[in-house]
User: Fold these one by one.
Assistant:
Number 1:
Amino acid sequence: MTIGALLRQYRLQAGKTQRAWIGDVISPSFYSKVEKDLTRISAADLIELLRQNHVKIATFFKQLDYQTESEDNLKKKIVAQMTDAYYNFDIKRLKEIKQTIAGSQLASKNELMLRVNSILAIIDGTKEKLSAAEIQQLKNKFFNEENFDWKTIKIFLNCMVFYDFASDMIITNKIFQQFKDSDNDNIQFIVLGILINMISMCLEKDKYQEAKQLVEKSHEIHTQPLTCFNKMTLLFLENIINYHFDPQQVYLDNCARQIEEFALIDMTEFSKQLQKIVQEKTGGNLG
C-alpha cells in the first residue's frame, strides 16, 4: 500500500473529511493529490499529520508497501523522523522508529539501526546503550583524518560521544581547518554542529579556555539562513563562557532571551536543556 492510499484508509477509519484530517498542516488541494499518489508529501508534514491524528508512526510505516517507494526516499523519511525526535528528546518516538526499522526489509536496515541506537545512546548520555561491536563499527566507519567529506563529517557529528575527548578535539580542529571556508551551507551547518558538540564537551569538563577558542573559531563561519539555529546555540554557549570569565548579569540575561526565543519556535525540550546548562554552569538567576 502506498503512503497516499494508507493515509486515505486511516482517514476514512477515523470518519474524517480531508479538511478535518489535515487541519492546518497542508492545503486541501495538495493533500487531495497526496491521497491519489499524484504528489509526494514531505517527511515533516507526514509526521505532523500522523501525530495530529494520533496515528502511531511505527504502525503506519509497518503497513507501507516498501516496494512502492525508492529505498532512498524511505531512508530519508526515517532519518527525518529520527532528527525530529532527537531535537525534541523524544525517546518514545525513537523507540517506535527503531521498531519500524527492525520490522522492515530495507537494504539499509543495519545502517539505520546503528544510527537510531547511536541517537538513543547520545540522549541517554552513555556508551553502554551500544554493544562493543556497534561502537567499533562507528569508529571504523569513516576515520580518515587527512581527507574528510560531507558524509564523514556528518557521521562524526552524530558519533562524537563515542570517542575520547582528545581524539574529538583533534578531529574537530582538522575538520574546521578543511571546511571553514566552504561555500556549501550544508557543510557549514554540520561544521557548526560539531563545534557545538565539542564546546559542550569542554563545558562538561570545565575546560573553559578550550571552549572559548572554539567559539572564536565559529565566528569565522558566516551566518546563513540554514545555519541560524546553530549560530543561536553558539551564541548561548558563548554567553555561558563569558559569564565564567566575567560573571555579569548581562550574560545571564542574554541566555534567558535566547532560551525564550527557542521556546517561541516550539523547541520546548531544547530550551529546557539550555535552562539546565545555565543552572549547572552559572548558578545564576535568569532575568
Note: The chain has a mean pLDDT of 84.
Number 2:
Amino acid sequence: MRDHQDLLSASALTAFRLNGQFLALAERLAAPAELTATRWQVLGAVLDEPLPVAGIARAMGITRQSVQRTADLLVADGLAEYRDNPAHRRAKLVAPTAAGLAAVRAINPGHREAADRLATVLDPARWEQALHALRDLSAALDTLDGQH
C-alpha cells in the first residue's frame, strides 16, 4: 500500500489532469453553441432551478467572483437573467433565458456522442465505480475544511 502523502499527491495530480481534460472537452462541446466551458458550467448549474451566485459557486467549487463575472456576461448576452430572490433581497437569482436553454440544448448531441465514445473505451460499470470513488474523495476532502 502506498504512503498516505503519496496517495494525496497522486490523487491531486490526477484530479488536476482530469480537470484539464474535462475543460478541454467542455470547450470543444460548447463551441458549436457559441458558449465557453465556463458559461456552460454556470448555465448548467441553474437549469433545474435559479440559484444565487454564491450557490452556483458552492455547487461548482469555483469562486463567487468568477461566477459573478460569468453571470454578468450571460445576462448581457441574453442567455441568463437576474430574478428577485425571496430569501435574500440583495442576492439576485440567476436563471437561464429561453436563449440560454436553447444554447445548452444545442450541446446535447455532441455531449451524448462524447459520452458514448468514452463508454466504448471505459467500461460503464468501471466508470460508475470511478464516479463513486471521486464523490467519496470529494466528500472526504470536505471534512478537512476547517481542520488544521
Note: Helices lie at 4-30, 37-45, 53-60, 64-76, 98-121, 124-144.
